[in-house]
Amino acid sequence: MSLFGFSLRPRRPKSAQTAKDRLQILLAHERRDGSDGPDYLPMLQADILAVIRKYTKIKEDDVDIRMERNDDISSLEINIEIPSEGPEKSIASALPGRRMKSRG
Amino acid sequence: MTQLKDKAPLGKVIVITSGKGGVGKTTSAAAIAAALAKRGHKTVVIDFDVGLRNLDMIMGCERRVVFDFINVIQGEARLKQALIRDKRLDTLWILPTSQTRDKDALTQEGVEKVLNELKEQFDYIICDSPAGIERGAQLAMYFADEAVVVTNPEVSSVRDSDRVLGLLASKTKRAESEGTEVKAQVLLTRHDQRRIDAGEMMTIEDVLEILAVPLLGVIPESPAILRASNVGMPVVLDEPSAAGRSYETAVARLLGEDVDMHMEGEKRPGFFSRLFGASA
Ligand SMILES: Nc1ncnc2c1ncn2[C@@H]1O[C@H](COP(=O)(O)OP(=O)(O)OP(=O)(O)O)[C@@H](O)[C@H]1O
Ligand SMILES: [Mg+2]
């Protein structure tokens, strides 16, 4: 990109700016949600487990919720491992990497 | 290291403690854990500083915390769900703590249960202790096999380290019920040769003479530490630096390797051989 006729060489961002950016994102989330992320996550997880169990047997460890907070959007990644039973061995996991986006 | 893979994990618990606040425990816990993981040892670093979570920032995983140590202790989440895998090293994991609860959320039984579960999966379990000598700090050290006492060459830090060494010798599981010792070593951090030369700061020899425990390593005062924390990298994974190399050397010694401690920026190479030549 060129500004005033000379081009700005891509420069490694200064680490202090990185620090500020990281803090702003983190603190915005902490002030809103309390610091430990949305507190509905444990309940959401329990509900998901209950729903899946209506159809198949899974262990508690088979539901994995991961979150990544970003500037304006956070993504929630829910992985559910469904053990393959009998002949249908190929179904190792259902909904792989399905993402729920929540506006942040 | 590859041979280790088939064996049961080592399951060694190492507490990083100090008594005094702000001496470099979290910086050291992150660097030591990352250096162990870099060498191929499956390592987890746990934040025991309940209510003042900071390890996640130093490790650069703050945006990925969902469940934490306290959730696991209180049965609200499984250990597997609270463990965060480092994005740079696949042998490194972080167990963050809660930012909202207080130290009373830690129970001895809860901590023991989590540590036992971790021992089945990890070679090294690094516990980042909170400052002080109260409940949080005591629980961080209680189940330790080894301790790294982080000390600055400064009067209140040395005094507090001495106090902590006393607790390690009496208020730990090894001391209380097993009649064995927690192996304690001092890690001298924020070492500033210029100020020592100017007579403003105690020397390594001064500190060791007072504390009378082995020296694990010396970490220089370094701008690389601030840079690494700004970007969320343990200093041994960031750009090469004297501080990073000093942590790598300390970890080699922690693993029992007979490496010479040469000080980064040290102009008198004979100095360390004088200190350690005889004891090794
Ligand atoms: N070798 C070093 N050189 C320069 N700065 C350092 C060094 N070690 C630690 N620091 C700085 O000292 C401050 C405290 O470090 P750190 O958070 O690791 O200490 P701590 O013992 O964990 O503190 P607390 O008792 O609050 O948990 C940080 O700003 C860190 O960047
Ligand atoms: Mg700390």
Rg of chain A? 21 Å
Unreliable stretches of chain A (pLDDT < 50, length at least 5) are 87-104
Report mean pLDDT of chain A, rounded to a whole number. 71
Taken as a percent bin, the fraction of beta residues of chain A is: 25-35%
Query: Span from first to last CA of chain B?
Result: 24 Å
The count of DSSP E runs of length 2 or more, i.e. the number of strands of chain A, is: 6
Which kinds of small molecule does this entry bind, naming each only once? adenosine-5'-triphosphate, magnesium ion
Instruction: Name the beta content range of chain B.
Output: 15-25%
Helix content class of chain A: 25-40%
Query: What can be said about the biggest beta sheet of chain B?
Result: 8 strands, mixed
The radius of gyration of chain B is 18 Å
Helix proportion range of chain B: 40-55%
Query: What is the ordering of alpha helices and beta strands of chain A?
Result: EEHHEEEE
Shape of chain B: globular
Helix-strand sequence of chain B: EHEHHHEEHEHEHHEHHEHHH
Across the major sheet of chain B, the strand order is: 3-4-2-5-1-6-7-8
What class do helices, strands and sheet pairing of chain A give? alpha+beta
Main attributes?
heterodimer; A: 104 residues; alpha+beta; 4-stranded antiparallel β-sheet; two-stranded antiparallel sheet; 2 helices; 6 strands; 31% helix; 26% strand; B: 280 residues; alpha/beta; 8-stranded mixed β-sheet; 15% strand; binds adenosine-5'-triphosphate; binds magnesium ion
Q: What's the layout of helices and strands?
A:
The complex is a heterodimer of chains A (104) and B (280).
Chain A: E1 2-3, E2 6-7, H1 15-33, H2 41-53, E3 63-69, E4 73-81, E5 93-94, E6 99-103
Antiparallel strand pairs in A: 1-2, 3-4, 4-5, 4-6
Chain B: E1 12-17, H1 25-38, E2 43-47, H2 55-59, H3 69-73, H4 79-82, E3 84-85, E4 92-95, H5 108-119, E5 124-128, H6 135-142, E6 146-151, H7 155-170, H8 173-178, E7 183-191, H9 193-197, H10 204-211, E8 215-220, H11 223-231, H12 242-254, H13 270-276
Helix pairs in contact in B: 1-12
Bound molecules: adenosine-5'-triphosphate and magnesium ion.
